[in-house]
Amino acid sequence: MPGCPWERILKRQGLPANRIDKKGCSGIESGKVLYSMRQHKNAALMIAQRREIKRFHQQEKKAVSQLAHTYQVSEATIRKWSKRESPFDLPSRAHQLPQVITEPYRQAVLDYRKDQPHHGPIRIDDQLKQDYPFANRGTVLKQR
Fold first, then answer.
1. Which ranges of 84-143 does DSSP label H, i.e. alpha helix?
2. C-alpha 45: how far from chain center
3. Could you tell me if residue 40 is left (phi over 0), alpha (psi between -120 and 50 degrees) or otherwise beta?
4. Which stretch of DSSP H or E encloses residue 83?
């Protein structure tokens, strides 16, 4: 597979290039997955390079600035990949999924606003937290 970007990486690691699947997206080493395509499409570094950076920085004690120059990325990128446990990109999904606002909570906010029109979202949030522990300024502001 001459056009495969993984062929060079496998050769460098001493693995046969014929161990690449037809799509060129995974290499196998003694029955284990060597790498997968859990990588952002615009990533500055390939997974093998991320592993090399971690090894050079932690085991061989190469300077961050020297590695940044070698791999043509910022020093912050070198520090990030040398600290990470895994060379794969983290999920880009939100850490906390948006809360679903229940109808009783929505009605409580609207009723409180009707009774106390001069109270702002912070005060409404404080008053409603006793009955609705998930109440916060953001959910109060969304209720109109």
1. 103-115, 121-128, 137-142
2. 15
3. beta
4. helix 75-83
54 in Cβ contact with 82 (< 8 Å) = yes
In the numeric block, which tokens belong to residue 60? 């061989």
Amino acid at 72: Q
d(CA 43, CA 46): 7
Model pTM? Answer: 0.44
Comparing C-alpha atoms, which of 39, 142, 143, 111 is closest to residue 127? 111
Buried-exposed string 45-80: b where 16+ CB fall within 10 A, e elsewhere: bbbbbbbbbbebbeeeebebeebbeebebeeebbee
* SS3 assignment, position 102: coil
Give the model confidence (pLDDT) of 63-108 as tens digits: 999 999 999 999 999 999 999 888 888 877 777 767 778 899 999 9
DSSP letter for each residue of 25-78: --EEETTEEEE-S-S-TT-SS-HHHHHHHHHHHHTS---HHHHHHHHTS-HHHH
Please choose, from the candidates 127, 122, 43, 124, the residue with its C-alpha nearest in 3D space to the C-alpha of residue 87.
Answer: 43
